[in-house]
Amino acid sequence: MPNEPLSGLRILVVEDVASMRSLVVKLLGRLGCEDVFEAADSETAWHHLKRHQFDAVLLDYELTSDDGVSLARRVRSDKALVNRHVPIILLTAHDEAPIVEAAGKAGVDACLVKPVMPDRLGQRILEAVKHRRAMNGLPPGTTEVSWTD
Predict the structure, then answer these.
(1) Residue 96: how many other CB atoms lie within 10 Å
(2) Is residue 80 part of a domain?
(3) Which of 46, 85, 88, 110 is the most buried (most CB within 10 A)?
(4) What is the enclosing helix (H) or strand (E) of 75?
């Protein structure tokens, strides 16, 4: 794919359903992201978050052991965590207002309803990364995604 808007980004995908996690990882690869970490539960995600710096986290709302909002809250509240300010995008099958509101209060940057479309996924990631970079005084990087396949 000539347009690789996510090239150079390191992304953590937290999804307990293996087929959905595999699909998201594959979509990220097609968008140019080759540095992807995977977690099937919140504890594995926490392990990665403590050891690696990420450009974005894609976080499922409904995890078997926990929910994504709780994990996002934990990330934002840990002052010693290097990823405390990482962009978090909540992937969910639910778009009900209370869930979106709770996600926002927990520090989630964006919500994306499953099933995810490749261009929408890429655009949400870039928007969240651009916003966080601006908050830290860094250049925005790539700003557009076009899916050609």
Answers:
(1) 9
(2) yes
(3) 88
(4) helix 68-77
Separation of alpha carbons 130 and 31, rounded Å = 16
Q: How many CB atoms lie within 10 A of CB 33?
A: 23
Distance CA 128, CA 48 (A): 20
**CA 33, CA 106: separation in Å to the nearest integer?**
26
Distances (CA, A) of 118 to 12, 14, 34: 17, 17, 15
Note the pTM of the prediction, 2 decimals. 0.88
Of 106, 64, 74, the C-alpha closest to 89 is 106
- The total of structural domains in the chain comes to 1
pLDDT 10s digits, 135-145: 766 555 544 44
Examine residue 141 and state whether it is found in any structural domain, yes or no: no
95 in a structural domain: yes
Residues 6 or more apart in contact with residue 66 via CB below 8 angstroms: 41, 42
The runs of H, that is alpha helices, within 106-145 are 118-135
